[in-house]
Amino acid sequence: MVETDIKELNERIQKESAFVDMVTMEMHKVIIGQKSMIERLMIGLLADGHILLEGVPGLAKTLAIKSLANCIEAKFSRIQFTPDLLPADLLGTLIYSQKNEEFKVRKGPIFANFILADEINRSPAKVQSALLEAMQERQVTIGDETFKLPEPFLVLATENPIEQEGTYPLPEAQVDRFMLKVVIGYPDKKEEKLIIRQNISNESVKTSPIISTADIQRARAITREVYLDEKIENYITDIVFASRFPAEYKLKKFEGLISYGGSPRASIYLALAAKAYAFIKRRGYVIPEDIRAVAFDVLRHRIGLTYEAEAENITSEDIISEILNTVEVP
Amino acid sequence: MRTVRSIGLFLFMLTVICGHAQEVSVSAKLDTNAMLIGDHVGLTLKFTGPAKSQVLWPFIPDTILGSITVIGRGKIDTSFTADKQTVSYTQQLNITSYDSGFYTIPGIPFKYRVLPDTTRLFASTNMTLLAVHTVKVDTTQAIKPIIGPLKVPISFREMLPWILGGLVVVLIILAVLWYLNKRRKQQPVFRLKPVVVQLPHELAMQEIEKLRQKKLWQAGRVKEYHSELTEILRRYIEGRFSVPALEQTSAEITYSLVNNPSCPQHELDRLSNLLIMADMVKFAKSQPLAAENEKCLSEGIEFVNQTMERKNA
Do A227 and B285 touch (CB under 8 A)? Predict the structure, then answer.
């Protein structure tokens, strides 16, 4: 019934996506709850998109990223962003060797597969832009030499929303480079009790490597093959255009509330993230449910609000929700 | 040498004194010094001084000397010389008097200071003479009555409100007559076109029939066929169950109808299967068999028939 290519793709996905459950289970050994966050980390991993995690301190943001890196046989670096951090501390620098009487390249912690940029908004703009440039170009220039960053290269950054004192908020253009912005909420009562039990027990739980970077590369290649119909493309463009020109989509009430809508990157990342979500759900094609599942995380940092919207306590989530409820599903 | 120095000092002092004397001048001038009783005459107050002067403009009361009345006060005009070194403030007053006689308007004091020096200085205008003459009356002539007001022709603008008012009254009378006529003939005042409201299931059935006649899947347009069929059903669900089905995904639509008494579980399953099949065609390049395409249509009709609103017998 289904054309061979999708049927065959479905079979390949069934085979190749087994690690998704394994990684998720392994991560759940360490992290209680936060299912959505773990799923989003998997989307970022499969769609080759960087992730920005936002949540109050103590919600296992750092632990989640560390655990994910542990599950994969890959090089992991953690960089704590501080106000005195310099781009060279991140990228690397040239060091003069007195013995050999020459400059030697000393690569920075960015040369790893998984980068945990902890509290990215704590360091000044020049360090942020150094990281974000590396994220975009996937290469770093030290002195006269340009070095390719290893593959897979995934930056998982965290930021604390309440600690505004002494922080440097990321400019819109730089936030746009993150594929997803995941907002993490508090665990429920049941999960909180489990967290207490796990942390006061003598047993120390650790994740162990399950897959290699080659497996990830293979899964990424299949994810790109997931079929995206033209109807879904139209649905994506409708959603993004509704964020730019709300009046054209029966959302005139948002006209003075949105300062800027989703960029073309929003459309690209919506498609890529939906493909990764379909892969996780063991499907070789994207359905509107996939778009809706990732829409909030892809769009929330890409919709700018005006002062009027802030005064009326309207969030970008409210706008996305209204857009999804207004744009016709194919 | 000493003599030369003394002369120099004298000349310098003279220059300073003269300069200072020329710095500020105030004046109060009448347009004319003689006028007829009740006539108007202009009184111009003027202050001229360095550009940095700050002037406290004199207050002239409404009545001067008990008989001269100020009937108009102009704004204080400011003007500068071309080199911007000297400023002039001018005010025009309009005065009159209804008592004949000779009046001496006293000097008007101006308070000012020249910045940056904050010392308050005074300058006064010269006294001004004003003669108010009476009209000569020829007592030999008889006293004539006062001339009555002149008649001015009525303009269209004045007539316009009356014309409009008249028209409104005529229209009201006509409307009342029209209404009474209708009432006498027992006719309805307004004839409203009856609005034919089609029920959601009637509309859905019509559209399904149109879709059947289009023979889309037979022409190989299977995707279009399933898209239209699901859209018809979604519109029906929106009208029948007040669920925003056009903006919902297949799973959301099914979820919205769970526990709805008008949509039993087997009908929900029927709808769910139909939507899943359509999704496969629309998004996964699925090519159903001819029988499956036909079945989708009949299942759609059955769903509408089984869930449509039934009037109480």
Answer: yes
